[in-house]
């Protein structure tokens, strides 16, 4: 019989993260577009980001209807958080930035994220933004495919910390850290060291 789950954070009730999830306001609107294969992932960090930010939403799919309306949300300028040759490094809002970003964040492996862009040409056509220098990922359960690779939640936190400085969005990382600690505890310190410790 499956373990009862929290309706909100989707974690087993005995590991519910809701008490750690903040409720943060942001000028930036975050829209997380999640590939369906990510929904069952134990560390569904896009969901944590959507739950912790008042001005965020999570959509799941491969082809997204209503993108034209979404991208034309009044009061925002849309941009895609995704690396590329033309991507601009994010910088803090200035006094003259009267229009904050509607930041579209694809959630999935790099291959799945590229597929989302391919299947949704309106996304691929958006101006791209990327993060500058970032701290190493706290995601100690997964070998990063390259230096600077972050989980979706970490990327959102980094982006907001840059855009809306001096405001800090680090509180979003509390449930993420607890989730990782819980996973490490469940696998046992020895297994963790063998599989994920320094090589």
Automatic annotation (TrEMBL):
Residues 2-188 form the DTW domain. InterPro entries: DTW, DTWD2/TAPT. The keyword S-adenosyl-L-methionine applies. It comes from the Bacteria. Its EC number is 2.5.1.25. SMART domains: DTW. Transmembrane segments: none annotated. Keywords: S-adenosyl-L-methionine, Transferase, tRNA processing. Belongs to the TDD superfamily. DTWD2 family. PANTHER family: TRNA-URIDINE AMINOCARBOXYPROPYLTRANSFERASE 2. This is tRNA-uridine aminocarboxypropyltransferase. It comes from Pseudomonas capeferrum.
